[in-house]
């Protein structure tokens, strides 16, 4: 069993060993081993040249990372959390995502922006939000969202090797969670493909599409529902952009029912995008009931624990949504809200 | 275009003595030393028993280095750079033949001449002189503005947002000051590689108000990067005068506290800029970051959509167009040396104007880029979703080609 934190470190370590051009920069990444200890031991191993502590200015070190990528390096830019990356979003979107296009293909920007995303615990509105939908709307960016340790390692290695800029959304609460890792996944050659979802659990009755920590909630709900004779197919997207719609469509063709699950807000969210793609494709005719989105509440994250729990999708919300979709009671559920 | 600068090292050593380079060792003398030095991690400074607030008048203003006076005469012969004839004429040629950016020509051409062609340049958008000096042709510039199929940028960038990888000029970024931390990042990559290359980053005094600028100064200082941060202080950010842009002694005054070797130069004097950038490059190549503030006056409007007479007097503009014009100063200097004449100047202007008009006429007739290029270079490998759209468009155009002006677009076989 390997915690996600160590899987991420393994990925960075192996890629730094493999390619001299790879380096990591961010606040506290060097001597302090990273705010969440993802970079533990890397500074001792690689030194100041490749593990760079920066002054506290996201706009500055994100810009430094973009410039270093322009000049041929492969930076990993760690944000202490993605909430702080909003200060640097100009560099991520206006420069990293667009420069390959604007330079007519002359200047690739191989860079990974990574750090914890989404809701942590008890850190309220300004530290608890999901940016998957934000970044995934931008052409030029790739957006990855790992769930397990294998996801974390395989996807991060793919991101570091990728010639395009990648936004890599981790989850603070999952950092310490141990997952089994296969021998294959422990090998330095283990890389997962970008743009390919993983069917975490096969089932015939309903498809649940999710990513990141929401996958845990989905699997939890699927376990409970299995006890009631309902078999859910849980699709862990792994990659929000590019989005593996093929896997979703195949699953819908089998289950004819779909719910989406995410911690982010409902409007213009990842679930909204999936619904739109279903509408625009033959998958629409496969559905026996309307699609239902289970999302974070449409409010800034409250601090107090009882409200925080209510603001995030829980197992019970998923179970209720599955029951509503399978029972074709969507209209009732909508009216009752 | 090869640079043929015959400046000897001895000569530069002399310049070094006379250009006042401010370093962080310069301390304000106003503080009364109470005896011992404090050893706080954040400041190694003397103690004092007196409360004394420092303000913008606590320091002498940073002087402005110049070589030529308003009549193009060398003020101190020891400061006259030893530049060969061809380079001098090249400088004058580029300065005179400048499409906009009146008043700031000296900064760009003077600095471009002092840099190595392999040095990477991050420009803002007023540095066409650097591009011209590095051999970009009028035709290339005009094609970019027209976004035709000959534009090496494939018609994707706003007009005048030039870039040229082979000339080491990074594609210009519109959001103000984003190029500044990026330039420091590129300089960090050069330092790591021990490449002997230097990054020069141009920005205006308005851009220096952005958070990016502060971040760039801080990172350049803390990472010890081979960078020249080159501020063009032309007095106006669109309509905002420097008096509303900042307090204190300009942008240069922010350099020493950030750990940057700092110098201020007369930007209307190409030779002064040349000397200062030459020296700055020597420092930067040894990983000493430099801030250079070139003072000038933006004679032209901010852009074609601006009328600057709404916010400044014509008398003011007149003074800078006449007495302190960089092109005039350089011309008088060269005439005095017998290297240039009024006839040559007139001939150059005529040739220049003809070249631009011809290039514009040609550019207008050129075909538009192949439509497929719109979908290329979003990602390193074209993703299936874009590939699918391209195929759909192809079959659509095949079926309905008579409804589209396809002859105006470059065909696939001939596209870049």
UniProtKB/TrEMBL annotation, chain A:
- Which reaction does this enzyme catalyse, per its entry? N(6)-[(R)-lipoyl]-L-lysyl-[protein] + pyruvate + H(+) = N(6)-[(R)-S(8)-acetyldihydrolipoyl]-L-lysyl-[protein] + CO2
Q: Which SMART domains match?
A: Transket_pyr
Subcellular localization, as worded in the UniProt entry: Mitochondrion
Give all residue intervals belonging to the Transketolase-like pyrimidine-binding domain. Answer: 2-177
List GO BP terms, alphabetically. Answer: pyruvate decarboxylation to acetyl-CoA
In terms of InterPro entries, this protein maps to: PDHB_mito-type (IPR027110), THDP-binding (IPR029061), Transketo_C/PFOR_II (IPR009014), Transketolase-like_Pyr-bd (IPR005475), Transketolase_C (IPR033248)
Q: What is this protein called?
A: Pyruvate dehydrogenase E1 component subunit beta
Organism equals Danaus plexippus plexippus
TrEMBL record, chain B:
> Which ranges are annotated Basic and acidic residues under compositional bias?
313-322
Which reaction is this enzyme known to catalyze?
A: N(6)-[(R)-lipoyl]-L-lysyl-[protein] + 3-methyl-2-oxobutanoate + H(+) = N(6)-[(R)-S(8)-2-methylpropanoyldihydrolipoyl]-L-lysyl-[protein] + CO2
Q: Enumerate the subcellular locations listed in this protein's record, separating them with semicolons.
A: Mitochondrion matrix
Is the keyword Ribosomal protein in the record? no
**Which Gene Ontology molecular-function terms are recorded?**
branched-chain 2-oxo acid dehydrogenase activity; metal ion binding
Query: In terms of one coarse class, where is the protein primarily found?
Result: mitochondrion
The EC designation for this entry is 1.2.4.4
List the GO cellular component terms. Answer: mitochondrial matrix
User: What sequence ranges are listed for the domain Dehydrogenase E1 component?
Assistant: 85-370
User: What cofactor(s) does the depicted protein rely on?
Assistant: thiamine diphosphate
The record's section on Pfam families has: E1_dh
Q: What is the name attached to this protein's record?
A: 2-oxoisovalerate dehydrogenase subunit alpha
């Amino acid at each position: 069993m390997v915690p996600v934190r160590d899987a991420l470190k393994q990925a960075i370590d192996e890629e730094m060993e493999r390619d001299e051009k790879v380096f990591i920069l961010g606040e506290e990444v060097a001597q302090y081993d990273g705010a969440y200890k993802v970079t533990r031991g890397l500074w001792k191993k690689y030194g100041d040249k490749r593990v760079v502590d920066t002054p506290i200015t996201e706009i500055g070190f994100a810009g430094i990372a973009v410039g270093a990528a322009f000049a041929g390096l492969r930076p990993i830019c760690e944000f202490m959390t993605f909430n702080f990356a909003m200060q640097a979003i100009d560099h991520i979107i206006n420069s990293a995502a667009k420069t390959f296009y604007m330079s007519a293909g002359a200047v690739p920007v191989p860079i990974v922006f990574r750090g914890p995303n989404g809701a942590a615990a008890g850190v309220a509105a300004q530290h608890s939000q999901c940016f998957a939908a934000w970044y995934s709307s931008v052409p030029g960016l790739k957006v990855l969202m790992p769930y397990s340790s294998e996801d974390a390692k395989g996807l991060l290695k793919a991101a570091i090797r990728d010639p395009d800029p990648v936004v890599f959304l981790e989850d603070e609460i999952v950092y310490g969670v141990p997952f089994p890792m296969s021998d294959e996944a422990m090998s330095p050659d283990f890389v997962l493909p970008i743009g390919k979802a993983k069917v975490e659990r096969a089932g015939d009755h309903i498809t649940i599409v999710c990513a990141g920590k929401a996958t845990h909630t989905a699997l939890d709900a699927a376990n409970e529902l299995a006890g009631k004779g309902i078999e859910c197919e849980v699709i862990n997207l792994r990659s929000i952009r590019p989005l593996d719609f093929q896997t979703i469509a195949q699953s819908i063709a089998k289950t004819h029912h779909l719910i989406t699950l995410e911690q982010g807000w409902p409007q213009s969210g990842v679930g909204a995008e999936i619904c739109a793609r279903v509408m625009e494709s033959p998958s629409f005719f496969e559905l026996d009931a309307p699609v239902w989105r289970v999302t974070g509440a449409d409010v800034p994250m409250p601090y107090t624990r009882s409200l925080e729990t209510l603001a995030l999708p829980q197992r019970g919300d998923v179970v209720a949504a599955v029951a509503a979709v399978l029972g074709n009671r969507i209209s009732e559920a909508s009216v009752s809200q | 275009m090869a640079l043929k600068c015959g400046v000897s090292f001895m000569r530069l050593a002399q310049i070094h003595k006379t250009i006042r380079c401010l370093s962080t060792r310069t301390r304000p003398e106003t503080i009364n030393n109470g005896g011992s030095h404090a050893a706080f991690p954040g400041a190694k400074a003397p103690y004092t028993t007196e409360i004394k607030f420092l303000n913008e008048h606590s320091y002498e203003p940073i002087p402005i280095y110049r070589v030529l006076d308003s009549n193009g005469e060398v003020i101190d012969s020891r400061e006259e750079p030893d530049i060969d004839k061809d380079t001098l004429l090249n400088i004058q040629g580029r300065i005179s033949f400048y499409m906009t950016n009146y008043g700031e020509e000296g900064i760009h051409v003077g600095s471009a001449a002092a840099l190595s062609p392999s040095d990477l340049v991050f420009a803002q958008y007023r540095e066409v002189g650097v591009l011209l000096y590095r051999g970009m042709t009028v035709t290339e510039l005009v094609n970019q503005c027209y976004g035709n199929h000959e534009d090496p940028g494939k018609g994707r960038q706003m007009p005048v947002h030039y870039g040229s990888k082979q000339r080491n000029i990074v594609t210009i970024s519109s959001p103000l000051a984003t190029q500044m931390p990026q330039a420091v990042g590129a300089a960090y990559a050069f330092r790591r590689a021990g490449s002997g290359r230097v990054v020069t980053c141009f920005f205006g005094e308005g851009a220096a108000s952005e958070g990016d600028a502060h971040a760039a100064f801080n990172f350049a200082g803390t990472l010890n990067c081979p960078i020249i941060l080159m501020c063009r202080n032309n007095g106006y950010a669109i309509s905002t005068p420097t008096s509303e842009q900042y307090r204190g002694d300009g942008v240069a005054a922010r350099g020493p506290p950030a750990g940057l070797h700092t110098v201020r130069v007369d930007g209307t004097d190409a030779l002064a800029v040349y000397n200062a950038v030459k020296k700055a490059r020597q420092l930067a190549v040894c990983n000493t970051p430099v801030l250079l503030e070139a003072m000038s006056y933006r004679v032209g409007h901010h852009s074609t959509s601006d009328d600057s007479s709404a916010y400044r007097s014509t008398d003011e503009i007149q003074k800078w167009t006449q007495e302190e014009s960089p092109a005039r100063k350089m011309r008088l200097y060269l005439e005095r040396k017998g290297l240039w004449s009024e006839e040559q100047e007139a001939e150059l202007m005529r040739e220049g104007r003809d070249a631009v008009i011809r290039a514009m006429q040609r550019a207008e007739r050129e075909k538009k880029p192949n439509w497929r290029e719109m979908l290329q270079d979003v990602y390193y490998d074209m993703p299936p979703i874009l590939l699918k759209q391209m195929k759909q468009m192809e079959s659509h155009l095949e079926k309905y080609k008579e409804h589209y002006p396809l002859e105006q677009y470059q065909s696939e076989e001939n596209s870049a």
